[in-house]
Design a protein that fits this description.
Length: 183
């Protein structure tokens, strides 16, 4: 019974993470395509608030996962260890890269006086590292769910994460390539 409850909480944490990531990406795409400074401000505010909730979802994911590993799976399972390593890396990337840059966008848009976003503000929104980080983290989260389902051995787990990183990088480049031109 306790196993089922912990698995449920673990899945709820995963759902919460994907909701937060989905809203963050939606807000970032909204910022990328905003023609008005006020619209960009609304999207930036949402992105900062939602991205700030991601560490909470990691706690909901991690604590039940720890119970599941200790009581059932053990630490010798490759997909668990690699998934845990990816989750830890993502947990640090979020505040260090994403949230810091999203807050910089929000600060820049709050000081913007023109009704249309300036070239500098648009460049800030098009921050390549931010886009690569957010999209790659999303791909890594999908890879973790894939491994939770398929339960691959060590090499398969590593290949899964390499593919996720490549997909994240490529998709982020495609998104920025299709972004509106800077004034």
């Amino acid at each position: 019974m306790l196993y089922s409850i912990m698995l449920f909480l673990h899945i709820i944490g995963t759902v919460a993470m994907f909701i937060a990531v989905g809203l963050t990406i939606t807000a970032m795409i909204g910022m990328l395509h905003s023609k008005k400074t006020e619209t960009l401000r609304v999207w930036a505010n949402l992105a900062v608030k939602v991205d700030g909730l991601l560490p909470f979802s990691v706690i909901i994911i991690f604590l039940p996962a720890l119970y599941l590993v200790i009581t059932t799976w053990g630490w010798h399972v490759a997909w668990i260890n690699i998934s845990l390593a990816a989750l830890i890396v993502m947990t640090f990337m979020g505040p260090a890269i994403n949230l810091r840059r999203l807050k910089a966008i929000l600060k820049a848009v709050e000081t913007e006086t023109a009704s249309t976003p300036s070239t500098n503000l648009v460049k800030t929104v098009q921050d390549r590292l931010l886009w690569i980080s957010v999209i790659t983290m999303t791909a890594l989260a999908i890879a973790i769910v894939f491994l939770m389902t398929v339960k691959l051995a060590f090499i398969g787990s590593l290949v899964t994460f390499v593919i996720a990183i490549l997909v994240g990088y490529i998709v982020s480049k495609l998104i920025l390539k299709t972004a509106p031109a800077i004034n």
